[in-house]
Write a structure and sequence with these properties.
Elements lengths: L2 E6 L5 H13 L3 E6 L1 H10 L4 H7 L2 E4 L16 E7 L1 H8 L6 H11 L4 E5 L6 H12 L3 E2 L13 H16 L16
Parallel strand pairs: 1-2, 1-4, 2-3, 4-5, 5-6
EC number: 2.5.1.129
Keywords: Flavoprotein, FMN, Prenyltransferase, Transferase
InterPro entries: Flavin_trans-like, Flavoprotein, UbiX-like
């Protein structure tokens, strides 16, 4: 079975983490969920989801303050970690090895164990500091994946746009899915 560590940080766009969790649940992917304290506030502000309902979709959930939880150890096996959304604070902490909470520590461990780490970074515009931190991590093999919308699949709803992004994360993790509408190529006129 595929096991993924999924973290939701406090940046706007908490719906990305929630939608990932929903689709992981549907795909029978084991999820180890970490929600930051700031993310709990963002979820309440941006969505109609209740924290209890979100937690029920996860295989297991750990408090963000508990750095003794299994995802804090390299001996805890998983196929990858996704932080969706990833705040600039979290990005900076990871880029600089500041493992002061479980999200940052689990990401640090994911890097040191050479496992896949995907960050759906959320900020605009990006400052030189943000870009330097992203470049630093990209050079270590971290996948920097801002949730950029695509339009070639002619999305009709926000849900269509969300599914495309979630499906692209699945692609990066090597998880088969039918969420992504694939690029058909350009037809001759």
């Amino acid at each position: 079975m595929t096991r993924i560590v999924l973290a939701i940080s406090g940046a706007t766009g908490s719906i990305y983490g929630i939608k990932l969790l929903e689709e992981f649940h549907k795909a029978d992917v084991e999820t180890q969920l970490i929600i930051s304290e700031s993310a709990k506030k963002t979820i309440a502000l941006e969505t109609d989801y209740l924290l209890d309902d979100i937690s029920k979709m996860a295989s297991q959930q750990f408090p963000s303050w508990d750095i003794a939880s299994p995802p804090a150890s390299g001996s805890f096996l998983h196929q990858g970690m996704v932080i969706a959304p990833c705040s600039m604070k979290t990005l900076s902490a990871i880029a600089n090895g500041y493992a002061d909470n479980l999200i940052n520590r689990a990401a640090d461990v994911t890097i040191k164990e050479r496992r896949k780490l995907i960050l759906l970074v959320r900020e605009t515009p990006l400052s030189p500091i943000h870009l330097e931190n992203m470049l630093k991590l990209a050079r270590l093999g971290v996948i920097i994946m801002p949730p950029v919308l695509s339009f070639y699949h002619h999305p009709k709803t926000i849900e269509d746009m969300m599914k495309q992004m979630v499906g692209r994360v699945f692609d990066q993790l090597g998880i088969e899915n039918s969420l992504v509408k694939r690029w058909p190529g350009i037809m001759e006129m």
